[in-house]
Structure formats: structure tokens, C-alpha cells
Prior knowledge:
Chain A: Belongs to the bacterial solute-binding protein 1 family. The complex is a heterodimer. By secondary structure, chain A is α/β, with parallel strands linked by helices. Helices cover 42% and strands 13% of the residues of chain A. Chain B has 13 helices and four strands. Chain B has a single domain (56-294), classed as MetI-like fold (Orthogonal Bundle). In chain B, helix 1 (5-34) packs across helix 13 (270-294), helix 3 packs parallel to helix 7 and helix 7 (163-188) packs antiparallel against helix 10. Chain B starts with a helix and ends in a 9-residue tail after the last helix. Chain B is globular. In chain B, the strands form two sheets. Chain B has a two-stranded antiparallel sheet.
Amino acid sequence: MSQLPDSTSDLSRRNLLRGAAAAGLLVIPATGLLSACATGGDDTPDTPAAGGEKSDKNPLGVKEDAQLEVVIFNGGYGEKYATDVHEPLYKKAFPNATIKHSSTQEISTILQPRFAAGDPPDFVNNSGTKLMDFGALVADQQLADLTPLWDAPSVDDPAKKVRDTVVAGTVEVGSFNGKPHVLYYVSTVFGLWYSGKLFKDKGWTVPDNWDAFLTLLGDIKKAGIIPYAYAGKNAPYYQYNVILTHAAKIGGADVLKNIDNLEDGAWKVDAVKQAAEAWGSLIGKGFMDKSHEGLIHTEVQLQQNQNKVALYPSGDWLEGEQAKTTPAGFEYTMATLPGLGSSDKMPAGTLRATAGEGYVVPAKGKNVQGGMEYMRQMLSKEGGRGFTEVVKAPTVVVGASEGYAFPPGVASSQKALASAGANVVNIFFDGWYKDLETEARVATNELMFGRINADQFCERLQKKADATKKDDAVTKFKR
Amino acid sequence: MRHGKYPFIIGFLAAPVALYAIFVVAPVIQAFQLSFTQWRGFAAPKWIGVDNYRTMFEDDKFWKALQHHAILLICLPLITIAISLFFAFLLNVGGRSRAGVMTGIWGSKFYRVVFFLPQVLAVAIIAVLFQTVYRPNETGLIDGVLMKLGLDPIFFLVDPNIALWSILGVLVWQAVGFYVVLFSAGMSSIPTDIYEAAAIDGATKFTLFFRITLPLLWNTLQVAWVYLGIAAFDCFALVNVLSIGNDGGPDGATTVLAVEIYRNMQTSKYGYASALGVALFFLTITFAALTLRVSRRENVEYS
């Protein structure tokens, strides 16, 4: 507050600061050295990992005694499936190999520096909110090409290639411009979720026709329940997923393909506009609650468990996620989206399904073959079955969960998937173009909570898609 | 003091300066470097000149963030300092004078603890707490009460028109405690005889405050203003936790530069994020320099 009385000393605050700043300047030349390590460099030679002898039991040519470093995202699925199922399978196939297992909830925090330094692990479960950007990993050639894996003979039937033992579309989902780089392992089905018990008690069914759907929402509202909800704070993508699936149903699967490929005017076609108009009309009719824009997904899902919300769009992880708060006899059930009218291009029962939970083999890992072999073991029937038994979710391995008694929700979504047959759509832009994805979230909230109309919604997203297309810094993908 | 002064200073400064150089100066310089590149975080950065800055000046979100900083920069220090000064005055000299000594109002020791309490909590905890305070349904602290009273809920963080003000409210709530303590310390260093003399001359509390407390606290106020101004350039944690979409929503209505930096890093645009960081660096430095210059005054020395 006051100057030191002994002002003959020039050890004043000002001089001290000045000295410190000067010292800081002196240090600057040394920082050239520091900066070299944080950004890594491309000067690390791409040493090809030493392989082993190829054989029938070892089609990928894994070095039998090489160490395999596995990093698992310890999130909703935990890490038990890796330590108790997949790693023992690998050890059984290669008894001399050692596995270095670790798990984290912050994948990018732990691994991004290791990638930048050219020292990544051999197998990574890249998932969670802190996942590394797949598009960036691919664009910077950090991920191994998984073609040898998909073309290798499968564990259970050497006459069949691995790619023929998984659900159709699995390889495609993890491909970038036709090159497979990511194994998406968990089969995921999207739809509208409700309490089977509540709907049975009230005599409600989810119809396929839009007008009948609106009538249902009206009935639900009269019963004092909020008919439709999603979490605006952190999960608006649940809702753009609905709008886009609906658009595909109206205008055919190409609507989504064009959006993913950033085709000119893809967001402004009638199908997207009609879907946006249909869903955007709910708030004005009082079928949604304004407060949900400020809530996170678990809060809205809890309200559904309390029968305060009737219909909720989500994927089939919902049942597992809510296991702790779901009352007994709630009976999660999934319905497919209603269509719009008689001129819909895709039939009732059309749904979005995809494979989720990404696994990758870093290209600069020391044991690339081992990483792919680990995937091959995951994709065996035993590997898939073991995963399903531990985490109660179906995998992309065909027939691996046969006869497994799923809880009612997943059972209903698996049934819907089976009856959808070939009428399955998917979107990819959300994983390819993060900026466009963010814009879609924002625009969806603006639309669904009544601040913009369907035209403005399409306009906004088209503008962002065009900007993405023009941006040279963004690596483009096609499907 | 003169004898062996420099070894003494160097001895004390070596370690902190080294730490500062490695963990502050070096990253800052690196950010400058990166701001001229396109870097996704894996392969080596690619030099692209001033492209990032050109993008920045065309970026709506950047201008929105600047606007929000301007609002926060004016409102946060003003409101916080006003409230803190008022409280500090009441706690220290607002009460009756006992045997000629000015004291705080009744229970001031207790209030001091109460005001300081938010300062003890980590920002993340405060943000999570306020999620509940602001939750726009019957389980929210404020809206729950409003709805019980039959009033309409207020959509604090949801309504684009009041979202930023809601976040400002949290910032003020959190900051007040610290500045009450800071100002209290400042006030207690003002000699009581000045107050006594003024009181004997018949000065009212109002006069005491504006004629004695405020001028003698000028240095402290200045520090507070700089601190709060710099705080207004941050706000990352609160916006990140509280805003819709956790990225300055709804639709950019609460975004700040730090959030934009984080968002761009998450989308692997480290070069562009660094350019935003450089902009933030210059804004903060300019602000601090300007404030110190503008508010320079004669120091009062009691001796």
C-alpha cells in the first residue's frame, strides 16, 4: 500500500519486475530447443515393425514374443472386457508375447503427445469425450491401414475372411476415402425410446404415420406427460440424428450420402427441409418443454425413468447407461421413426444403425501386426461373445451374441434392426467434419426450441457445409 | 542492503525465473510460432503465414467473443468492486464507534467468513453448483422456488439474451469475497486517527467513505481493477461448464476467447487456436498496461 520507507534501496517492485523481464528475454534463445520437442516432427524415420513368420495360425505374421501395448478407454464399457476376454485370447494364441495394458478416461491427454513424438502404443481404444480426432489422425497418416486384417482368414473359419464375419457396413464405417483405418466394434441402433410398461398401461403405440404420431403426442400431453424430449445442453446430436434419419426416410438414403459428401445444396433438398419442419413444429404445439434445452442427457433420461417424459431419441446404449435409475418393470423399448407421408422413399422400419466405439492400430507403433492380430481375436466369436457378456452390448461379430438373453431394450432394438433388413441408413459427416457437426448441434437447438425455422436451419447448415468444402485445411472424405 | 545485493537477488530469483521461463515464456513464444502454421497435433506444423489471422478477422465467433469480453470488462470490475467496497466498509468502519474506535457492524467477523467462503471453492465446483442453481425446472434452486410460487421459470443459461448475464452473476458472486478481504486489509492500514478526526469534525458515514476511505484505497482499487479485468479475459471454466453445448452456447451467446481456443483445439486446429491465443495475449497485456497508466496517481504515504 505504501512505499518502503527505506527508498534509498533501488530494490523497488518496478526494478524487480524489470529485472525479471530481462531475465525472461535471456531465456528466449533456449526455447528454440524446447519448441522442437513439443511439436514433434516428421523426421522420425518410419521404421517398419519387424514381423514374424506368417503361418495358418499366424496369418498376419506377428512376431511371437513381441510386446503388445494396449490402451483402453475406461468409460461406459470399462476395461474388464479387455483384461478378462480379449487379452487372454491374444495370450492364448501367442503364449510368448507380453501385453502391456493400461487404461484411461482421457485418451488424447495421454496419447496425443506420444503420437506427436512418434512413440504411440500398438493398439488404442480411441473413445470418450477426450478422444483424438479420427480425421486428423488419418490425414496425418498416423493410423495403420487395416486391409490386411479384413482380408485375413477369420479365427473361427479359416475359409472365411474376417470382413465376411462382421455385420455389413462395418468396414465402410471405419474407412476414410475407401481405406479402412478404424475398427468400430459395437453394434449401435438408433430410434425413439419409451417405457414399454407406460405405453402398455395407457394403450399407446408408436405409429409409422406422421399425423398419427402427432395425435399420439397430443394424447400423451393430455395425460400430463411431456411427449418428446432431448437434452439441449450437451446432446443435440441425438436430435439432428432424428431429423436426418427422417429426411432419409422421406427422400431416400442418398440424401444422407450427399450431405456426407458435401454435395452442393445437399442440406437444402426438400426431404431435409420437410423433416426439419416436421420436428421443428413440436415446440410450438407444446409437445416439448423449453427447460430441456438447459439440461444434460442424464437429467432428461432420469425424467423419462420417472415417467415425466414419454419419447426420447437415443441409441441402444441408453438402457445400460440408465440401469441404475430405471425402476423395475420400466421395460425400455425402441420404436423406429415415423415416416412423413405416403410418398416416403423408404419403408416403415427404416432406421439408423452404425458401429461405434473405435479401435485403431497406430501406424508408427512397434508391433503393428500384433495390433491387428489383437483385432482379429476381438472379431472371433469367442471375443465378441465375451464382450457382450461383460458389457451387455452387441458387437459387429455376426452370430456372436446368438442365444444371449439381452435386456428388453437391446432385445427390441436388435429385433428392429433385424426387421429393417437392408433399410439401414447411416451418417458420417459428424465424424469427418467436426466444425460442421458443431454447427449442426447449434442449428438443431435453434430449430427445435423455436428460434429459427426449417428454411433457416437448412440455409445455415448449407453455408457451413460450403465453407467446409472450400477450406483447404480440412481433409475431405467421400463415401 | 547494498552489500552483496546482486548475488542475493539472483539467488532468490534463479529458480522462479527458470520455472517461469520454461512453463510460461517458452509456451507463449511457441504459441506465436504455431499461430503462423497449420497444425493438427500429429505431423509437423505447416507454415501458412498470416492465414490464421485472416480467418480470425472473418470469424463471427471471434467478434462475438470480443463483444462479450468488452461487456465483462466493464461490468465485472464495476459490479464486483462496488459490492466489495460496500461490504468491506460495513465490515470495518460501518458500525458504531466504540470508545472512539471505528468498528464494523454487528457480526462482521461472521460475515467476513461467509463472504470469503466462495473463494475457497474451486471454480469447477462453483460451476457445477451453479448448474443446479440455474437449472430451468422445478429442481433448480431459483426456478424451483419461482415455480413453487406459481411464477414462470427464468431460462437463465438457455435464453440467449440473459445467458451471459447469468454467467457474469456467477463471476461476481465468486469474486466478491476475495475483494472484501483485499479492501478490508487496505482499510485497516488507513490510520484510525484520520477517521476519528473526521468524525469529530462531524463527518457522516457517507462523507467518511467518499472523502477518506476511497481516496486512501486508490492503490488497492487499482490492483483490483487489473485483476478483475484480467479475470474478465478468462472465464473459461465457468463458460465451459455452464453454457449450452459447453462451448459458449446457446449459439455463441456466451462464448469467450478461451472457449474458442479450446473448441478449435478440440477440432485439431492448433494453429488457428494459437492465433486466437496470441490475440488474447495482446488484449490482456494492452488492458493491464492501459489501466495502470490511466489510473496512475500520487501515492499517499503515512509516515
